[in-house]
Design brief:
The protein is α/β, with parallel strands linked by helices. It is built from twelve helices and twelve strands. Helix content is 41%, strand content 18%. The chain is globular, with a radius of gyration of 30 Å.
C-alpha cells in the first residue's frame, strides 16, 4: 500500500477506487462511505459533491493513514501467500526447473507409470498390420499410462499427421512418454557429425509437434580404429549442441545405454557430466549394461537412475539371463524415480513369442511393478 496515494475524486455517480488485499478495486457507494473508505485506504479523498457530503469538503481532504489496518492487511497478505505455498508443497506440486531457480525440491517419492514403446510391435507396424493410431488405442486396452512413439513408424512428418496422432492420444487420455529416433552421434568425421546434429534437430521438432517432452538418441557403435575415449568425445560434442537446441523447445534428450559406446554406466555418466545440461539425460534400458568386475548390471542401473529420463523394460538381459524385475523395482523406488517404465518387447529375448501375445504379458508385469513400488 502506498502511503501517499493520489487524490481520488468522489461523487454520487463516480466509482470508489478502494485498496483491498488484491489491489485497487472499483465499487459504487454513497458519499459517506466514499470518505470513510478513502481514509481507511490511505487515499487523499477529494469530494466534489460539496455540501451533499456529510463530511464536508474540508474534512474529505483528511488522510486517514490507519497504520494498524495497513499492518493487519500486510500480515494477511503474507500469511495467505505462505498458506498457499505450503499447501502446494503438501500436495507435492512439481516445481518446474526448480534447480534452475535455486529451489530445492521436496524429498522424492517414487512415481512409476507404465508405458510401452511402439518398437514392441515393430513387426506389425513395419508390415502394415498395425498403424500408430491402432497402437495408441491398444494402450487403452492394455490400461497403460503412456506410449513411446518410435519415429521409424511414422507415416510422415507433416504437421497435420503429427497433430492427428497427438489429438487421438489426448482424446483417449494416453500420454506420450516421448519419441525415439535412431540418430547415432559417434561419427568419425566432422561433416557426418554435423549431419547427425541436423537429424536430431529435425526429430526434436517432430517431438515438439507431437506434444511430447523427450527424445531418445544413440551414441552408436565403436568404429574400427577409434578409441572409446575419442568416441565419447564425439558424443559429448554432438549431444551438447543438440541439447542447446532441444532446450529452446523444452525437450529432454535421453542417451540410451545401447549396444556400443554407451553400454556401460561409467561412459553414460561421463557423458552426462561433460554435457552438463538440464536437458540431457539417460534413456535407461535396464537390460543392456555389460557386467564388469567392479559393477554388475544392477549396480550400473542404480548408478544411472538419477539421470534416467525414460526407462525401457524387458525381462531378460542381452545375454539371455532373466532379469529380477522385483529387484529393479526396488532400485527405482529407493531412488525416488518419477517417470515412465516403457515396455520394449522383443520376441528374440522372449522365446520367439509374437508381440501380439508376448507384449501384453510383459506389460502386465510392468503395471504390477508400478503398482507395487509407486507412491501413486
Amino acid at each position: 500500500m502506498r502511503a501517499n496515494a493520489p487524490a481520488v475524486p468522489f461523487d454520487k455517480a463516480s466509482p470508489l477506487h478502494e485498496y483491498g488485499l488484491f489491489g485497487w478495486k472499483e465499487t459504487s457507494v454513497d458519499l459517506e462511505v466514499h470518505a470513510t473508505a478513502g481514509r481507511e485506504a490511505g487515499a487523499t479523498v477529494s469530494c466534489t459533491a460539496g455540501q451533499r457530503c456529510r463530511w464536508g469538503t474540508d474534512k474529505c481532504q483528511a488522510r486517514g493513514r490507519m497504520k494498524s489496518k495497513i499492518a493487519r492487511r500486510n500480515f494477511l497478505k503474507t500469511a495467505m501467500a505462505g498458506t498457499l505455498t505450503g499447501a502446494a508443497l503438501e500436495m507435492g506440486a512439481p516445481l518446474a526447473h526448480a534447480a534452475s531457480f535455486g529451489i530445492q525440491d521436496s524429498p522424492k517419492k517414487p512415481r512409476l507409470l507404465a508405458g510401452c514403446c511402439a518398437y514392441s510391435f515393430r513387426e506389425l507396424l513395419t508390415h502394415g498390420q498395425m498403424t500408430l493410431e491402432e497402437f495408441i488405442l491398444k494402450a487403452v486396452e492394455f490400461r497403460l499410462d503412456a506410449v513411446d512413439m518410435t519415429v521409424y513408424y511414422l507415416k510422415s512428418t507433416e504437421p497435420e499427421y503429427l497433430e492427428s496422432l497427438r489429438h487421438l492420444a489426448y482424446k483417449n487420455a494416453v500420454a506420450f512418454s516421448g519419441a525415439a529416433c535412431g540418430a547415432s552421434m559417434v561419427q568419425n568425421n566432422a561433416a557426418k557429425r554435423a549431419e547427425v546434429l541436423q537429424q536430431i534437430r529435425k526429430w526434436v521438432d517432430v517431438t515438439d509437434r507431437l506434444g511430447a517432452s523427450h527424445l531418445r538418441v544413440f551414441a552408436g557403435t565403436l568404429p574400427d580404429g577409434v578409441s572409446l575415449q575419442q568416441a565419447t568425445d564425439w558424443t559429448v560434442e554432438t549431444m551438447k549442441a543438440a541439447c542447446d537446441y532441444s532446450a529452446t523447445k523444452g525437450i529432454m534428450l535421453g542417451l540410451e545405454d545401447h549396444s556400443g559406446v554407451s553400454q556401460s554406466a561409467d561412459v553414460c555418466l561421463e557423458i552426462m557430466r561433460r554435457v552438463n545440461s538440464p536437458y540431457a539425460g539417460i534413456t535407461l534400458d535396464i537390460t543392456h549394461f555389460i557386467p564388469t568386475p567392479a559393477q554388475d548390471a544392477y549396480a550400473q542401473i542404480a548408478a544411472c537412475i538419477p539421470y534416467a529420463t525414460v526407462v525401457h523394460v524387458r525381462d531378460q538381459f542381452d545375454d539371455g539371463k532373466p532379469l529380477d524385475m522385483d529387484r529393479v523395482g526396488r532400485l527405482f523406488a529407493d531412488a525416488g524415480y518419477r517417470g515412465y517404465l516403457c515396455v520394449e518387447y522383443s520376441a528374440d529375448s522372449s522365446g520367439g513369442e509374437a508381440a501380439i501375445t508376448g507384449a501384453p504379458k510383459l506389460i502386465a508385469k510392468t503395471r504390477e511393478l508400478c503398482r507395487k513400488y509407486s507412491s501413486v
